[in-house]
Design a protein that fits this description.
The complex is a heterodimer. By secondary structure, chain A is mostly helical. Chain A contains ten helices and no strands. The longest helix of chain B has 25 residues, at 96-120. Classes of the chains: A mainly alpha, B mainly alpha.
Chain lengths: 187, 121
């Protein structure tokens, strides 16, 4: 890992010579985290998350000339992935009549992750599915990806204060939605 | 450490202890799936990339070389020039005035060939 070419150098190679191998290396490096992020946002619908991740990487390839080294490539990519996710959510809400959209949201998406998951894991994921898209994205950025508030706000395209509000509201909702988590985790 | 842990925002809803436990719970959940295997994902993305655009940067030097050849052909030197090329191919130094045409022509054609080879590779 110590001799790994930095992401910025790979981006420069792609831009200088349309080096597809360099872009392939960027995809290989970031696919795991990007797909994991989208799986959380998509309420564990893995197939949908992978479709959106593919779209995110294709958009990243097309927009690569817009990448500035003031943000890490991964952070920039997560921002694209989050925007792809939001566009999907908006398109889906436009397609579905309002009642069905609400029902689909409340069903917890693909709750088909039951197999092989611990009770606590399921509890957390069910609780996450109760959050709004923005609140869930804020929690994923801050706690699953360990991003700072500033980085998370950049990815979500909102002010830091707004991001903090999302996190604050999300925590309150999670505490209410996690069954008996206080007693289970009590010292 | 994530700055999200620095609880400087008003946390009216949760006590610091509950907040800490909730954060711990989220991090434990995050740690359950730290990495997702590629399993052909990268290959699928690469298959969907738009086709590579052909680069024609070699065209300028190639046209320059061609132009130099045309100028040489319509000048009073063609026969002389061919003789000088033969001399050069035999490993001797051609006449100095012919170098004014031969050298730029060779450089431009060589540069065009190098660019074309680099970009197709």
């Amino acid at each position: 890992m110590a001799n790994e070419v930095p992401d910025a150098a790979l981006v420069a190679r792609v831009l200088a010579g349309n080096d597809r191998h360099a872009f392939g290396e960027l995809v290989r490096r970031h696919q795991g985290a990007t797909r994991a992020l989208l799986r959380r946002l998509c309420k564990e619908d893995h197939a949908l998350a992978d479709d959106l991740a593919q779209e995110a990487f294709l958009q990243a390839f097309r927009k690569l000339a817009q990448f500035r080294a003031d943000a890490a490539f991964g952070t920039w990519l997560y921002r694209i992935a989050y925007n792809v996710f939001l566009m999907h959510v908006r398109a889906r809400k436009e397609e579905l009549p309002l009642d069905e959209a609400v029902a689909a949201d409340e069903s917890g998406g693909a709750a088909a992750t039951v197999e092989g998951s611990s009770v606590q894991e399921l509890d957390v994921r069910r609780a996450l599915s109760k959050l709004s898209e923005e609140e869930r994205a804020a929690i994923v950025q801050c706690y699953y990806l360990d991003r700072s508030h500033e980085e998370a706000a950049y990815v979500l395209g909102c002010p830091v204060g707004t991001l903090k509000s999302y996190v604050f509201r999300a925590k309150k909702k999670l505490a209410a939605a996690l069954p008996g988590w206080e007693t289970r985790n009590a010292p | 450490m994530n700055r999200a842990m620095d609880s400087q925002e008003p946390e009216a809803g949760l006590s610091p202890e509950h907040e800490r436990r909730l954060e711990q719970l989220l991090r434990e959940d995050a740690a359950r799936e730290p990495y997702i295997e590629d399993a052909g994902f990268t290959a699928r993305v690469m298959d969907r990339l738009p086709p590579a655009q052909r680069s024609y940067s070699w065209l300028g030097p190639a046209l320059g070389g061609l132009g130099a050849a045309v100028v040489a052909a319509f000048s009073s030197l063609p026969a002389d020039l061919l003789a000088q090329v033969r001399i050069a191919l035999q490993g001797h130094l051609p006449a100095p005035q012919s170098l004014l045409v031969l050298v730029p022509m060779a450089v431009l054609v060589g540069f065009a060939a190098w660019l074309a080879a680099t970009e197709s590779g």
